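ok here's Ig-like domain-containing protein:
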Amino acid sequence: MNLIHSVQGLSDVRVVALNVPSQVRKGSEVELSCLYDLGGGNASLYSLKWFYRANDTDLDEQEFFRYTPTIKPYKQFFPLDGVNVNVNKSEGGRVVITETNKKTTGNYKCEISVEGTFQTVAAEKSMIVMGNNSNASNATNRSMIMLIILLWFLVLISWRHHWHEDIIVDTWHL
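and the structure:
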């Protein structure tokens, strides 16, 4: 799901790019990034927030990371089962999630708010965490088995053809 929308009013504030990988491997570290444009002028960033929703039908989104450049602490992390944020590597529009697992699968939203007017824009994308390489390795194993059977079959046909030719040649020479 790719969704970029304006939440409050029309403004020049916009999300330029939201980078959320569509698929990641279980146990991996993943970086989410949100690039934005405040529209020039003297607009300044009030906050950049990251939200998580378990799926498209779930209306309950939960904030898990907030960056406020003018309010200390600048970075705030809100613990969420399955979304393990490396706060030291996360800054501004960049969030690093470690130890991805089944519960990490879901929709991720970046929300930008402008200082003063509090105009807000947001973008959202889905990410799926794939299990261990079991599916890939099973497919590889099946492919190898099929290749071995095919090679065995070709050798058998070749040997049989060669043996049959020898019999035919020998009968001609009799």
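+1. Residues 6 and 123 are 9 Å apart (CA to CA).
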